[in-house]
Specification:
The complex is a heterodimer. Chain A is α+β, with helices and mostly antiparallel strands. In chain A, a hairpin with a 6-residue loop joins strand 4 and strand 5. In chain A, helix 1 packs across helix 2. Chain A is globular. Chain B is mainly alpha-helical. Chain B is 72% helix and 0% strand. Chain B has 14 helices and no strands. The N terminus of chain B is likely disordered. Classes of the chains: A alpha+beta, B mainly alpha. Chains A and B meet through strand 2, helix 4, helix 5 and strand 6 of A and helix 6 of B.
């Protein structure tokens, strides 16, 4: 690079020297070569600028191939969801609501039945859809105050309720509809004044009680892979019940959760053995939730 | 208090007939009534949170965001038109220079007020200053707006300082106490030589501020377009043409507002005979350019045939709000004003051109609605809006009375305040104090 800059400098210097009319063909060719080298240097600089601007590298990001673990992070949590095992019972939706105490209109996971189009035999294809905790999350990029971010230790995309101003730019920016605004509504059973109203949500281990005007009301909320169930080392444990509520409750065992950085995890094994797809691959978001069809 | 301005005779009113006076007064009373009804709705929303709106998680941005980009556009458009005078030395337009800059300032504050009331936690607005996240276009925009405000204030001061200081000496009582601080202690030069030097200094500063202001204003509104253009999740937004569309439609709406205000609110018939037709043709030019861009967007989008993209165009053209596109935006916002401006242009009266301006201003609001809402109303995944039984996930968004009343109240209040300020400030060069 330094050499190229030198050449570029030289090219600039010598290009000014010869007067018009005295230039031989050979001179011209030499100058053209030098100018070419200079443009090459500029182009390489341009690449650096483009890389800075674009979050998604032109070639597949490390970790896009599930067989290749991400070394930079301790864990890479994700899901492999087997649509052939999903019966559309929506137990995951309910379990998530019970775990995170989400209000009406906020569902960290939903069950879609037409997202991929029905198969020719009209058999419905159900699909539970949590947040995909993308490697290149567009929602994080657009947040003007950095209230939503991807955790460096495990890649879970979270929201800092106390910093979020509620502009909802991230909702428009998410290609998967994983974000919901908390408008402050309550289910009748947990409405203010009822004994259940005082039960806090364990989300982020912050144990907030719902109160008018207080976060998370007025904030954008999303699936956290039940991050509050991790131990101090950031590990989940299925046997102890410290496992994302939707995966724990799934009646058909359709939702598989685990660490893609661990080649022996169930999710890694499923990706090796089966053909998985991800939604809207063309956007370069590199989701950490895969679907088996 | 505000209405006293209307009954006060001011320099232009002498030539205006009683009928126009009465009409203006009726409009001011109407604005007052709207503000009286609308502002309580605004305070209700600020107190009760966004739950009192019809916004949701499928269409998270609604009529307030449309108003926000609308007023930012009006502001940037007005400012860019003013640079035609102060930077590019279009002497003929000079008499509307102060109005253009003042309009840019008032519209910018209105736009920012709209985005403030759209925040889920509006009391945390200062977070955008203390926690900027520089990968967000919105974070950049905040700083563009801040710098832009400083430039507008500085330009207004340079434009009005001489008249303000003169008014401060001529005025009595409370008015004196207002004009003196507004002039920032500047004193009008006494001798003609000094005055000429002062005048030259003012022009130089206006040129410098204008030159700095051009990229800033382009950043202010082109960047506001970029807020949408960078969202790859919404195919109808994700297009490099968007920042350009924002700037061109801003110029059209800014010109339209200037036409309207000059023709109906602050007329100066002797100068307007020349200025208004010129301004009208300039505005019409931008409007036509805007229509070309709109056509390009539709043609490329429809030809591409990407379902989400095509669907949002169908929603615009034949959805439940088809009339915003065909009637408000194209018929009354474009076709009629173009006819008013170009049909027998030589005989066009000030009223006709002012009406054309008003129609363009109203039409561009339709453009803004159709930018914000339809692209969001196509759920990002098929069936997402039906996945849970909640009105907050509906793909059909219809603003409710809180949203409309608070918007109209805010606009009416700003219009009244701006009117009062226009009557109390030297909007014309060497304007005598009354």
């Amino acid at each position: 690079m330094a050499k190229l800059v030198q050449i570029e400098k030289k090219a600039r210097h010598s290009a000014a020297e010869p007067e018009i009319g005295t230039m031989t063909r050979r001179d011209l060719l030499t100058h053209l070569t030098k100018i070419g080298a200079a443009s090459l240097a500029a182009a390489m600089g341009g690449d650096a600028v483009m890389e800075m601007l674009s979050q998604t590298p032109a070639v597949a990001a490390p970790g896009a191939d599930p067989a290749e673990p991400l070394i930079k992070r301790k864990y890479r949590y994700g899901m492999v969801i087997d649509t052939r095992r999903c019966v559309g019972c929506k137990a995951c939706v309910v379990a998530c609501k019970a775990e995170n105490k989400t209000p009406p209109g906020v569902a960290y996971t939903v069950v879609l039945d037409g997202a991929l189009g029905n198969r020719p035999d009209d058999k419905p294809l159900f699909m539970t859809k949590p947040c995909f905790h993308c490697e290149n999350p567009p929602c994080v990029d657009v947040c003007p105050v950095g209230a939503t971010f991807k955790r460096s230790q495990d890649g879970i995309v979270v929201v800092d309720y106390d910093r979020c101003i509620g502009c909802r730019y991230c909702i428009t920016g998410c290609p998967y509809g994983a974000r919901y605004f908390d408008f402050g509504e309550n289910y009748p059973a947990v409405a203010e004044g009822t004994p259940y109203a005082g039960v806090p949500s364990p989300e982020y281990n912050q144990f907030r009680t719902r109160a008018e005007g207080k976060s998370p009301i007025g904030n954008v909320r999303k699936c956290t892979f039940c991050v509050h169930l991790q131990d101090a080392e950031g590990r989940y444990n299925k046997a102890e019940g410290r496992w994302p509520a939707c995966a724990k409750t799934c009646t058909g065992h359709a939702i598989h959760f685990g660490d893609f950085n661990d080649p022996e995890s169930e999710v890694s094994r499923l990706l090796r053995e089966r053909q998985a797809i991800r939604l809207k691959e063309e956007l370069g978001t590199n989701p950490n939730v895969y679907y088996l069809l | 208090m505000i209405y006293t301005g209307a009954s006060n005779p001011s320099m232009a009113t002498e030539e205006r007939d009683d009928r126009a006076q009465r009409a203006l007064r009726t409009v001011l009373w109407l604005l007052g009534a709207l503000a009286a009804v609308g502002l309580p709705a605004l305070f209700y929303r600020l107190y009760a949170g966004l739950g009192v709106t019809h916004l949701g998680s499928v269409v998270p941005w609604g009529v307030w965001v449309a108003f926000y980009i609308y007023f930012i556009g009006l502001s940037a458009g007005s400012f860019l038109l003013s640079t035609l005078i102060f930077v590019f030395k279009n002497e003929k337009l000079e008499p509307v220079g102060r109005l253009a800059v003042f309009q840019a300032f008032a519209c910018l504050l209105t736009g920012l007020a709209f985005i403030l009331i759209d925040l889920g936690h509006w009391t945390r607005f200062y977070h955008v200053i203390i926690y900027p996240q520089w990968r967000s276009v919105l974070a950049w925009e905040i700083w563009f707006y801040n710098i832009y405000i400083v430039i507008l204030l500085a330009e207004m001061w340079f434009l009005m300082r001489c008249d303000l200081s003169r008014w401060a000496t001529e005025a009595r009582g409370w008015a004196k106490r207002i004009y003196r601080p507004l002039s920032l202690g500047f004193y009008c030069p006494k001798t003609p030589e000094e005055e000429r030097a002062c005048d030259q200094q003012t022009r130089r500063w206006l040129k410098i501020l204008g030159i700095i202001g051009i990229p800033i204003a382009l950043g202010v509104h082109g960047g506001t377009g970029a807020i949408f253009a960078v969202v790859k999740a919404r195919p109808a937004w994700y297009s490099p043409i968007f920042p350009l569309v924002f700037i061109i439609s801003a110029l059209a709406s800014g010109g339209g507002l200037l036409l309207f205000l000059r023709a109906f609110v602050l007329p100066q018939p002797d100068k307007d005979r020349e200025i208004l037709p010129m301004l009208a043709k300039l505005t019409a030019g931008f409007l036509v350019f805007d229509l070309v861009l709109l056509g390009l967007e539709f043609l490329v989008g429809l030809y591409g045939g990407i379902p989400d993209h095509v669907e949002s165009y169908y929603l615009i053209a034949s959805g439940p709000f088809w009339w915003v596109f065909w009637i408000q935006q194209l018929l009354f916002g474009a076709a009629v004003p173009l006819i008013l401006i170009y049909w027998r242009a030589a005989t066009a009266s000030a009223m006709r051109l002012g009406l054309a301006g008003l129609l363009i201003v109203l039409g561009v609001f339709g453009v803004r609605l159709n930018i914000v809402i339809p692209a969001l109303a196509i759920p990002v995944l098929r069936g997402f809006d039906m996945a849970i039984d909640s009105a907050r996930l509906a793909s059909l968004y219809v603003p409710n009375w809180v949203e409309w009343l608070s918007s109209l109240g805010l606009v009416a209040a700003v219009a009244l305040l701006a009117y009062a300020a226009m009557r109390r400030l030297p909007m014309n060069e060497h304007q005598p104090y009354r």
